[in-house]
Amino acid sequence: MRPCLEKVVGEMEDHASRDETFVEQDKAFHRILFEPLGNQLLTNLLGVFWDVYRTIYDAIDTDLAITQPVKTAQDHRDILNAVRDRDIEKASELISEHFHGIRALLANRQVEQDGRAN
């Protein structure tokens, strides 16, 4: 397993233990995880995702980045462990759940914004 992933997850856990967010480590985790695939389209899409995510994060007056840092850090630890164990099915399931959580968070934020606009 690439030691960089372990380092990044450790940094996430350190931030989470202080109830701090870790957007840059989250971004690095996904970049390091998917880089070995050599899929330039995926790499570009992840880059666009993080650019949009950062724009949204900077534009609103709330902590959209990570609302549950301990859980989010544990999610990344679980993904890392599945990858390390070469459990492709588990890793895929965990990554899918992780991105579903991000989509749900963004959707909830949109509903909150729409409710305030009315």
Automatic annotation (TrEMBL):
<feature type="domain" description="GntR C-terminal">
    <location>
        <begin position="5"/>
        <end position="100"/>
    </location>
</feature>
<dbReference type="InterPro" id="IPR008920">
    <property type="entry name" value="TF_FadR/GntR_C"/>
</dbReference>
<keyword id="KW-0804">Transcription</keyword>
<protein>
    <submittedName>
        <fullName>FadR family transcriptional regulator</fullName>
    </submittedName>
</protein>
<dbReference type="GO" id="GO:0003677">
    <property type="term" value="F:DNA binding"/>
</dbReference>
<keyword id="KW-0805">Transcription regulation</keyword>
<dbReference type="Pfam" id="PF07729">
    <property type="entry name" value="FCD"/>
</dbReference>
<dbReference type="InterPro" id="IPR011711">
    <property type="entry name" value="GntR_C"/>
</dbReference>
<keyword id="KW-0238">DNA-binding</keyword>
